[in-house]
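Entry 12.
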Amino acid sequence: MKTTSYLSGFVLKLFEKNGLRASKPLITMLTTLTVCLLGGAEALPYDRTSLLVRMQRIRRFLSNERISPLKTLIPLIRLMRPLLSELDEIVLSVDRTKWKSLRKVVNILTVALSYKGRAIPLFWIVLDRKGNTSFEHWIQVLAPVIEVLNQMDWISAPIHAVADREFATPKLAEWLKTTYGVDSTLRLKASMYLSGDGMPETKISELLKGMRKGDRTVLYNQTVTRDSKFEMNVLLTWGTDYEEPLVVMTTSGDPERADSVYGLRFGIEPMHKDWKSNGFEIEKSRITDPKRIETMLILIAFAYVLCVFEGERAEKEGEVQKPPKGKKRVVGLFLSGLRAFRRQVRQATIMQLKKFILRLIKPFCDAWDWKISVAGYG
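Predicted 3D structure (C-alpha coordinates):
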Protein backbone atom coordinates (compact mmCIF):
# COMPACT_ATOMS: atom_id res chain seq x y z
CA MET A 1 0.00 0.00 0.00
CA LYS A 2 1.28 3.48 -0.86
CA THR A 3 0.02 4.91 2.44
CA THR A 4 2.01 2.31 4.38
CA SER A 5 5.13 3.04 2.33
CA TYR A 6 4.78 6.78 2.93
CA LEU A 7 4.18 6.29 6.66
CA SER A 8 7.28 4.05 6.83
CA GLY A 9 9.35 6.76 5.19
CA PHE A 10 8.09 9.29 7.72
CA VAL A 11 8.87 7.05 10.72
CA LEU A 12 12.32 6.22 9.33
CA LYS A 13 13.06 9.93 8.95
CA LEU A 14 11.99 10.51 12.56
CA PHE A 15 14.41 7.85 13.73
CA GLU A 16 17.25 9.38 11.73
CA LYS A 17 16.50 12.96 12.86
CA ASN A 18 16.52 11.92 16.50
CA GLY A 19 19.84 10.11 16.32
CA LEU A 20 18.87 6.44 16.26
CA ARG A 21 22.00 4.53 15.33
CA ALA A 22 21.61 0.99 14.05
CA SER A 23 22.48 -1.13 11.02
CA LYS A 24 20.22 -0.76 7.98
CA PRO A 25 18.49 -4.16 8.46
CA LEU A 26 17.79 -3.38 12.13
CA ILE A 27 16.44 0.10 11.57
CA THR A 28 14.36 -1.13 8.61
CA MET A 29 12.75 -3.83 10.74
CA LEU A 30 12.26 -1.38 13.62
CA THR A 31 10.50 1.00 11.23
CA THR A 32 8.36 -1.73 9.67
CA LEU A 33 7.14 -3.11 13.00
CA THR A 34 6.49 0.37 14.45
CA VAL A 35 4.34 1.18 11.43
CA CYS A 36 2.49 -2.13 11.90
CA LEU A 37 1.68 -1.12 15.48
CA LEU A 38 0.43 2.27 14.31
CA GLY A 39 -1.57 0.99 11.35
CA GLY A 40 -2.69 -2.44 12.48
CA ALA A 41 -2.60 -5.56 10.31
CA GLU A 42 -3.34 -3.44 7.21
CA ALA A 43 0.13 -1.90 7.55
CA LEU A 44 1.96 -5.19 7.04
CA PRO A 45 4.06 -4.82 3.88
CA TYR A 46 3.54 -7.23 1.01
CA ASP A 47 6.19 -9.94 1.01
CA ARG A 48 6.56 -12.88 -1.36
CA THR A 49 8.19 -14.99 1.35
CA SER A 50 6.20 -17.45 3.42
CA LEU A 51 4.60 -16.54 6.73
CA LEU A 52 7.05 -18.86 8.51
CA VAL A 53 10.05 -16.99 7.05
CA ARG A 54 8.62 -13.60 8.04
CA MET A 55 7.91 -14.81 11.56
CA GLN A 56 11.48 -16.08 11.87
CA ARG A 57 12.84 -12.67 10.78
CA ILE A 58 10.77 -10.98 13.48
CA ARG A 59 11.95 -13.46 16.14
CA ARG A 60 15.58 -12.82 15.19
CA PHE A 61 15.02 -9.07 15.37
CA LEU A 62 13.36 -9.27 18.81
CA SER A 63 16.26 -11.40 20.09
CA ASN A 64 19.00 -9.19 18.62
CA GLU A 65 21.37 -7.95 21.35
CA ARG A 66 22.35 -4.93 19.25
CA ILE A 67 19.07 -3.22 20.03
CA SER A 68 17.98 -2.45 23.59
CA PRO A 69 16.08 0.18 25.62
CA LEU A 70 19.42 1.65 26.69
CA LYS A 71 20.47 2.19 23.06
CA THR A 72 17.16 3.76 22.06
CA LEU A 73 16.62 5.93 25.17
CA ILE A 74 18.31 9.08 23.78
CA PRO A 75 16.40 9.02 20.45
CA LEU A 76 13.16 8.38 22.35
CA ILE A 77 13.68 11.36 24.67
CA ARG A 78 14.73 13.57 21.74
CA LEU A 79 11.53 12.56 19.95
CA MET A 80 9.60 13.67 23.04
CA ARG A 81 11.20 17.13 23.07
CA PRO A 82 8.00 18.98 22.08
CA LEU A 83 6.19 17.39 25.04
CA LEU A 84 9.00 17.68 27.57
CA SER A 85 9.67 21.33 26.69
CA GLU A 86 6.17 22.29 27.81
CA LEU A 87 6.50 20.89 31.33
CA ASP A 88 7.26 22.92 34.46
CA GLU A 89 8.19 19.70 36.27
CA ILE A 90 9.16 16.30 34.86
CA VAL A 91 7.40 13.67 36.95
CA LEU A 92 8.75 10.14 36.53
CA SER A 93 6.42 7.33 37.56
CA VAL A 94 7.90 3.99 38.57
CA ASP A 95 5.70 0.92 38.57
CA ARG A 96 5.63 -2.79 37.82
CA THR A 97 3.17 -4.76 35.74
CA LYS A 98 2.82 -8.46 35.04
CA TRP A 99 0.74 -11.02 33.24
CA LYS A 100 0.74 -14.76 32.57
CA SER A 101 1.23 -16.39 29.19
CA LEU A 102 1.87 -20.05 28.42
CA ARG A 103 2.15 -20.70 32.18
CA LYS A 104 4.99 -18.18 32.45
CA VAL A 105 4.93 -14.83 34.26
CA VAL A 106 5.97 -11.72 32.34
CA ASN A 107 7.23 -9.21 34.94
CA ILE A 108 8.13 -5.67 33.81
CA LEU A 109 9.50 -2.71 35.77
CA THR A 110 8.88 0.62 34.03
CA VAL A 111 9.81 4.28 34.30
CA ALA A 112 7.37 6.56 32.48
CA LEU A 113 6.75 10.28 32.02
CA SER A 114 3.53 11.48 33.66
CA TYR A 115 1.68 13.50 31.03
CA LYS A 116 -1.86 14.88 31.12
CA GLY A 117 -3.45 12.11 33.15
CA ARG A 118 -1.55 9.31 31.45
CA ALA A 119 2.06 8.18 31.19
CA ILE A 120 4.51 7.70 28.31
CA PRO A 121 7.08 4.88 28.56
CA LEU A 122 10.75 5.86 28.81
CA PHE A 123 12.67 2.84 30.09
CA TRP A 124 12.00 -0.67 31.38
CA ILE A 125 13.51 -4.00 32.33
CA VAL A 126 11.86 -7.39 31.94
CA LEU A 127 12.52 -9.82 34.78
CA ASP A 128 12.81 -13.55 34.26
CA ARG A 129 11.05 -14.28 37.55
CA LYS A 130 7.89 -13.33 39.41
CA GLY A 131 7.73 -11.24 42.57
CA ASN A 132 8.67 -7.76 43.72
CA THR A 133 11.67 -5.80 42.52
CA SER A 134 14.70 -4.69 44.54
CA PHE A 135 16.60 -1.46 45.16
CA GLU A 136 19.16 -2.55 42.55
CA HIS A 137 16.37 -2.90 39.96
CA TRP A 138 15.09 0.60 40.75
CA ILE A 139 18.55 2.07 40.19
CA GLN A 140 18.81 0.10 36.96
CA VAL A 141 15.72 1.78 35.47
CA LEU A 142 15.92 5.25 37.02
CA ALA A 143 19.61 6.11 36.59
CA PRO A 144 19.71 5.96 32.74
CA VAL A 145 16.55 8.09 32.41
CA ILE A 146 17.71 10.79 34.84
CA GLU A 147 21.20 10.90 33.31
CA VAL A 148 19.87 11.28 29.75
CA LEU A 149 17.36 13.95 30.81
CA ASN A 150 20.22 15.83 32.49
CA GLN A 151 22.25 15.66 29.26
CA MET A 152 19.58 17.55 27.31
CA ASP A 153 20.47 21.26 27.38
CA TRP A 154 16.93 22.16 26.33
CA ILE A 155 15.48 20.67 29.55
CA SER A 156 15.41 23.04 32.52
CA ALA A 157 12.45 21.63 34.47
CA PRO A 158 13.21 19.83 37.75
CA ILE A 159 12.71 16.06 37.93
CA HIS A 160 10.46 14.42 40.53
CA ALA A 161 10.01 10.65 40.99
CA VAL A 162 6.81 9.07 42.31
CA ALA A 163 6.13 5.44 43.20
CA ASP A 164 3.75 3.16 45.05
CA ARG A 165 4.22 1.12 48.23
CA GLU A 166 6.46 -1.50 46.60
CA PHE A 167 9.13 1.21 46.39
CA ALA A 168 8.49 2.72 49.84
CA THR A 169 11.96 2.94 51.31
CA PRO A 170 13.89 6.05 52.37
CA LYS A 171 16.92 4.37 50.79
CA LEU A 172 15.47 5.12 47.33
CA ALA A 173 14.57 8.71 48.25
CA GLU A 174 18.04 9.30 49.72
CA TRP A 175 19.76 7.86 46.64
CA LEU A 176 17.73 10.08 44.29
CA LYS A 177 18.35 13.23 46.35
CA THR A 178 22.05 12.75 47.09
CA THR A 179 23.06 11.31 43.71
CA TYR A 180 21.04 13.48 41.32
CA GLY A 181 19.33 16.17 43.40
CA VAL A 182 15.99 14.64 42.34
CA ASP A 183 13.01 14.92 44.68
CA SER A 184 10.68 12.00 45.25
CA THR A 185 7.27 11.26 46.70
CA LEU A 186 6.70 7.65 47.74
CA ARG A 187 3.62 6.03 49.25
CA LEU A 188 4.18 4.47 52.67
CA LYS A 189 2.89 1.22 54.14
CA ALA A 190 0.80 1.29 57.30
CA SER A 191 3.22 -1.20 58.88
CA MET A 192 6.15 1.26 58.73
CA TYR A 193 7.42 3.43 61.61
CA LEU A 194 7.96 7.19 61.88
CA SER A 195 9.92 9.23 64.40
CA GLY A 196 11.28 12.76 64.65
CA ASP A 197 10.51 16.41 65.32
CA GLY A 198 9.51 15.66 68.90
CA MET A 199 7.35 12.64 68.04
CA PRO A 200 8.34 9.27 69.53
CA GLU A 201 8.61 6.23 67.27
CA THR A 202 5.09 5.51 66.08
CA LYS A 203 3.64 2.95 63.72
CA ILE A 204 1.77 4.57 60.82
CA SER A 205 -1.26 2.34 61.41
CA GLU A 206 -1.61 3.94 64.86
CA LEU A 207 -1.65 7.43 63.33
CA LEU A 208 -4.34 6.37 60.88
CA LYS A 209 -6.73 5.13 63.57
CA GLY A 210 -7.75 8.65 64.56
CA MET A 211 -8.19 9.99 61.01
CA ARG A 212 -11.49 10.96 59.41
CA LYS A 213 -12.36 11.89 55.85
CA GLY A 214 -11.15 15.41 55.10
CA ASP A 215 -8.25 15.25 57.59
CA ARG A 216 -4.83 16.43 56.48
CA THR A 217 -1.59 16.51 58.50
CA VAL A 218 2.06 17.16 57.64
CA LEU A 219 4.77 15.70 59.89
CA TYR A 220 8.11 17.41 59.33
CA ASN A 221 11.65 16.03 59.58
CA GLN A 222 10.68 12.41 60.03
CA THR A 223 12.88 9.35 59.79
CA VAL A 224 11.02 6.47 58.17
CA THR A 225 11.74 2.91 59.38
CA ARG A 226 14.05 2.10 62.26
CA ASP A 227 17.14 1.63 60.07
CA SER A 228 17.18 5.03 58.32
CA LYS A 229 18.55 8.38 59.47
CA PHE A 230 17.47 10.23 56.31
CA GLU A 231 14.83 12.84 57.19
CA MET A 232 11.76 13.47 55.06
CA ASN A 233 8.40 15.14 55.43
CA VAL A 234 5.32 12.93 55.66
CA LEU A 235 1.81 13.87 54.54
CA LEU A 236 -1.21 12.03 55.92
CA THR A 237 -4.43 12.89 54.11
CA TRP A 238 -7.85 11.38 53.58
CA GLY A 239 -9.70 12.81 50.61
CA THR A 240 -13.48 12.87 50.86
CA ASP A 241 -13.79 10.86 47.63
CA TYR A 242 -11.45 8.07 48.76
CA GLU A 243 -12.09 4.93 50.77
CA GLU A 244 -8.80 5.01 52.69
CA PRO A 245 -6.18 7.55 53.78
CA LEU A 246 -3.03 8.27 51.78
CA VAL A 247 0.37 8.45 53.50
CA VAL A 248 3.34 9.65 51.46
CA MET A 249 6.89 10.67 52.30
CA THR A 250 8.51 13.39 50.24
CA THR A 251 11.79 15.27 49.88
CA SER A 252 9.96 18.18 48.26
CA GLY A 253 10.17 21.56 49.93
CA ASP A 254 6.38 21.83 49.59
CA PRO A 255 4.94 18.74 51.32
CA GLU A 256 1.42 20.19 51.19
CA ARG A 257 1.23 19.31 47.50
CA ALA A 258 2.71 15.84 47.92
CA ASP A 259 -0.65 14.14 47.37
CA SER A 260 -1.29 15.97 44.10
CA VAL A 261 2.21 15.10 42.83
CA TYR A 262 1.79 11.49 43.93
CA GLY A 263 -1.59 11.40 42.17
CA LEU A 264 0.21 11.74 38.83
CA ARG A 265 1.52 8.21 39.37
CA PHE A 266 -1.87 6.72 38.56
CA GLY A 267 -1.42 7.52 34.85
CA ILE A 268 1.05 4.65 34.49
CA GLU A 269 -1.62 2.05 35.16
CA PRO A 270 -3.76 2.84 32.07
CA MET A 271 -0.50 3.03 30.07
CA HIS A 272 0.26 -0.56 31.05
CA LYS A 273 -3.32 -1.47 30.10
CA ASP A 274 -2.73 0.16 26.70
CA TRP A 275 0.28 -2.12 26.23
CA LYS A 276 -1.46 -5.28 27.32
CA SER A 277 -5.00 -5.11 26.01
CA ASN A 278 -6.40 -1.66 25.09
CA GLY A 279 -4.12 -0.75 22.20
CA PHE A 280 -1.29 -3.10 21.29
CA GLU A 281 -2.53 -6.33 22.93
CA ILE A 282 0.93 -7.58 23.80
CA GLU A 283 -0.65 -10.14 26.15
CA LYS A 284 -2.04 -11.96 23.12
CA SER A 285 1.33 -12.12 21.36
CA ARG A 286 2.29 -15.24 23.36
CA ILE A 287 5.81 -13.82 23.67
CA THR A 288 7.34 -14.72 27.04
CA ASP A 289 11.08 -14.47 26.44
CA PRO A 290 12.35 -11.43 28.45
CA LYS A 291 14.64 -10.17 25.68
CA ARG A 292 11.91 -10.33 23.06
CA ILE A 293 9.44 -8.54 25.34
CA GLU A 294 12.11 -5.90 26.05
CA THR A 295 12.58 -5.24 22.33
CA MET A 296 8.85 -5.32 21.61
CA LEU A 297 8.40 -2.51 24.14
CA ILE A 298 10.86 -0.35 22.17
CA LEU A 299 8.46 -0.49 19.21
CA ILE A 300 5.54 0.24 21.51
CA ALA A 301 7.31 3.23 23.11
CA PHE A 302 8.01 4.96 19.77
CA ALA A 303 4.49 4.24 18.50
CA TYR A 304 3.05 5.43 21.82
CA VAL A 305 4.78 8.83 21.57
CA LEU A 306 3.52 9.38 18.02
CA CYS A 307 -0.04 8.49 19.07
CA VAL A 308 0.13 10.96 21.97
CA PHE A 309 1.37 13.65 19.53
CA GLU A 310 -1.65 13.06 17.30
CA GLY A 311 -4.10 12.86 20.23
CA GLU A 312 -2.82 16.16 21.57
CA ARG A 313 -2.86 17.85 18.16
CA ALA A 314 -6.48 16.81 17.60
CA GLU A 315 -7.46 18.11 21.03
CA LYS A 316 -5.67 21.45 20.58
CA GLU A 317 -7.29 21.99 17.18
CA GLY A 318 -10.76 21.19 18.48
CA GLU A 319 -11.22 17.93 16.58
CA VAL A 320 -11.56 16.12 19.92
CA GLN A 321 -13.34 17.72 22.87
CA LYS A 322 -11.14 18.66 25.83
CA PRO A 323 -12.24 17.29 29.20
CA PRO A 324 -13.89 19.81 31.56
CA LYS A 325 -11.51 21.26 34.15
CA GLY A 326 -10.88 18.73 36.91
CA LYS A 327 -12.36 15.86 34.89
CA LYS A 328 -10.56 12.95 33.24
CA ARG A 329 -10.58 12.30 29.51
CA VAL A 330 -13.08 9.67 28.42
CA VAL A 331 -10.52 8.58 25.81
CA GLY A 332 -6.83 9.19 26.51
CA LEU A 333 -4.54 11.04 24.10
CA PHE A 334 -2.86 7.75 23.16
CA LEU A 335 -6.03 5.89 22.14
CA SER A 336 -7.35 8.94 20.31
CA GLY A 337 -4.11 9.13 18.32
CA LEU A 338 -3.93 5.40 17.65
CA ARG A 339 -7.45 5.38 16.22
CA ALA A 340 -6.53 8.29 13.95
CA PHE A 341 -3.42 6.53 12.62
CA ARG A 342 -5.38 3.37 11.89
CA ARG A 343 -8.14 5.29 10.10
CA GLN A 344 -5.49 6.88 7.90
CA VAL A 345 -3.91 3.56 6.96
CA ARG A 346 -7.25 1.91 6.24
CA GLN A 347 -9.16 4.71 4.54
CA ALA A 348 -6.96 7.64 3.47
CA THR A 349 -5.56 8.37 0.06
CA ILE A 350 -1.84 9.04 -0.18
CA MET A 351 -2.50 12.80 -0.38
CA GLN A 352 -4.75 12.66 2.69
CA LEU A 353 -2.05 10.79 4.61
CA LYS A 354 0.57 13.36 3.58
CA LYS A 355 -1.64 16.16 4.89
CA PHE A 356 -2.26 14.18 8.10
CA ILE A 357 1.48 13.85 8.70
CA LEU A 358 2.08 17.51 7.87
CA ARG A 359 -0.54 18.57 10.45
CA LEU A 360 0.95 16.19 12.99
CA ILE A 361 4.54 17.31 12.64
CA LYS A 362 4.19 21.00 11.81
CA PRO A 363 4.03 22.31 15.42
CA PHE A 364 7.21 20.40 16.26
CA CYS A 365 9.41 21.36 13.32
CA ASP A 366 11.16 24.10 15.30
CA ALA A 367 12.17 21.60 17.98
CA TRP A 368 13.66 19.27 15.39
CA ASP A 369 14.93 21.96 13.00
CA TRP A 370 13.11 20.10 10.26
CA LYS A 371 11.25 21.54 7.29
CA ILE A 372 8.65 19.43 5.53
CA SER A 373 6.00 19.84 2.91
CA VAL A 374 3.06 17.82 1.66
CA ALA A 375 5.27 16.58 -1.13
CA GLY A 376 7.81 15.00 1.17
CA TYR A 377 10.44 15.54 3.85
CA GLY A 378 13.07 18.24 3.97
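Annotation: The two ends are 23 Å apart (CA to CA). The chain has two domains: 2-67+286-377, 72-268.
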